[in-house]
């Protein structure tokens, strides 16, 4: 109920407020609720309910109706004459209708074992759906952090634009009083137009990314929605907690229930039955007329020898269990390799961020010096723009590396299963 309330709140907030912030965790929750594959969980449960109900019907009385008319080439006759008695042979054309009721009395737990196999199969299939939905998280990560990167680029570009606009006013004043060349105006104005082009490109990119993310999580998101930078407070560990591990476990449990069912295939089955009918002849073959009849009793069915089919099936199930164990080992190995690669990527980006900070400090000093030189007419506006662009690129690299670090950590956590 708590998750449902959270889900409804997310939907209302995203659709109603364009400026509402959206978090990475919210996207994870929405894709698990809205992605078409998620519907299969309930569908599988309903299907299993019907399958188990069908299996349970074997415990109920089974009612059969039979009607037949036959003609045979010969009939049973008494080859001796009995004095003072005439025994007519049955007719060659015979008619019979019967209604039979069969009730299973004992099957050694076979029916319940069959129901357990279906339940184990349901759990495995539902976990497979969960695994498939979980794998969408990496796709969400790529979209989410791509949008974050566009947002950071826009914010940085906005700062650059504001700085250039302020500088343009100073330059115009310098041109007016003959301190600076008139061409300085044009250089700054051209750079501002270039920034507008970059704004347009960012908006188109954001719109495309938002639309894709919106389709994936099944909720309308405005391209003005601000995405939150996720915080990774907990330390990254190498312990694997992926749903695939639970899937391997459930597959093994499914095999174990199948083994139990297989061991019960040849147990004796006891059934009670009642047969009632009407036909010519009836049970008395010497009475050549239509008559009613009935029969009741108990029957035992026991497969004593099945050519080792049950044993071979058990061996096949054990091999399948070993195959799943091998698949689990391969999954853990590949996941650990992937985690090591991602940890190396995190370390690399962390190092690059340290270098970015050092570069930006130096670039800031250079731009401040260039500002003073431009103001005094020592350098041209083009030279100033070059140094400002270098600073902007350094800041852009820093922001890009920060987003890449967040993405790397998010990918690490998804790969780990945390």
Automatic annotation (TrEMBL):
Kindly list the places in or outside the cell where this protein is found, as annotated in its UniProt entry: Cell outer membrane
The organism's superkingdom is given as Bacteria
Do the record's keywords include Amino-acid biosynthesis? no
Name the keywords, alphabetized: Cell outer membrane, Membrane, Signal, Transmembrane, Transmembrane beta strand
Q: Which GO terms describe its molecular function?
A: efflux transmembrane transporter activity; porin activity
Name the principal localization, coarsely classed.
Answer: membrane
Tell me what this protein is called.
Outer membrane protein TolC
Native organism taxonomy: Bacteria, Pseudomonadati, Bacteroidota, Flavobacteriia, Flavobacteriales
């Amino acid at each position: 109920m708590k998750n449902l309330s959270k889900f409804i709140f997310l939907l209302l907030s995203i659709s109603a407020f364009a400026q509402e912030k959206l978090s990475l965790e919210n996207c994870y929750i929405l894709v698990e609720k809205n992605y078409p594959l998620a519907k299969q969980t309930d569908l599988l449960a309903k299907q299993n309910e019907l399958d188990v109900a069908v299996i349970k019907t074997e415990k109920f009385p089974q009612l059969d109706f039979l009607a037949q008319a036959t003609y045979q080439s010969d009939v049973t006759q008494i080859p001796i004459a009995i004095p003072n008695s005439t025994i007519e042979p049955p007719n060659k054309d015979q008619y019979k209708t019967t209604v039979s009721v069969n009730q299973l009395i004992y099957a050694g737990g076979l029916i319940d074992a069959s129901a357990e196999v279906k339940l184990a199969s349901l759990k495995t299939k539902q976990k497979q759906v969960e695994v498939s939905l979980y794998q969408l998280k990496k796709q969400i990560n790529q979209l989410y952090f791509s949008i974050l990167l566009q947002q950071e680029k826009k914010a940085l570009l906005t700062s650059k634009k504001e700085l250039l606009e302020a500088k343009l006013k100073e330059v115009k004043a310098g041109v007016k009083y003959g301190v600076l060349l008139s061409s300085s105006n044009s250089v700054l104005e051209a750079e501002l137009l270039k920034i507008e082009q970059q704004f347009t490109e960012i908006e188109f990119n954001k719109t495309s990314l938002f639309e894709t993310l919106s389709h994936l999580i099944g909720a309308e998101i405005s391209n003005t929605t601000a995405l939150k930078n996720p915080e990774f407070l907990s330390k990254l560990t190498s312990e694997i907690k992926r749903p695939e591990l639970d899937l391997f476990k459930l597959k093994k449990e499914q095999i174990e229930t199948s083994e139990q069912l297989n061991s019960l295939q040849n147990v004796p089955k006891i059934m009670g039955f009642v047969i009632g009918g009407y036909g010519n002849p009836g049970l008395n073959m010497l009475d050549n007329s239509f008559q009613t009849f009935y029969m009741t009793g108990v029957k035992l069915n026991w497969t004593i020898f099945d050519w080792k089919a049950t044993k071979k099936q058990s061996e096949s199930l054990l091999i399948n269990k070993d195959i799943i164990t091998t698949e689990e080992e391969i999954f853990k190995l590949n996941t650990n390799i992937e985690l090591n690669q991602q940890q190396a990527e995190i370390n690399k980006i962390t190092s690059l961020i340290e270098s970015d900070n050092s570069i930006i400090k130096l670039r800031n000093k250079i731009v401040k010096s260039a500002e003073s030189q431009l103001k005094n007419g020592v350098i041209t506006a083009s030279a100033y723009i070059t140094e400002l662009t270098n600073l902007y690129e350094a800041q852009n690299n820093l922001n890009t590396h920060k987003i890449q670090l967040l993405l790397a950590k998010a990918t690490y956590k998804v790969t780990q299963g945390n």
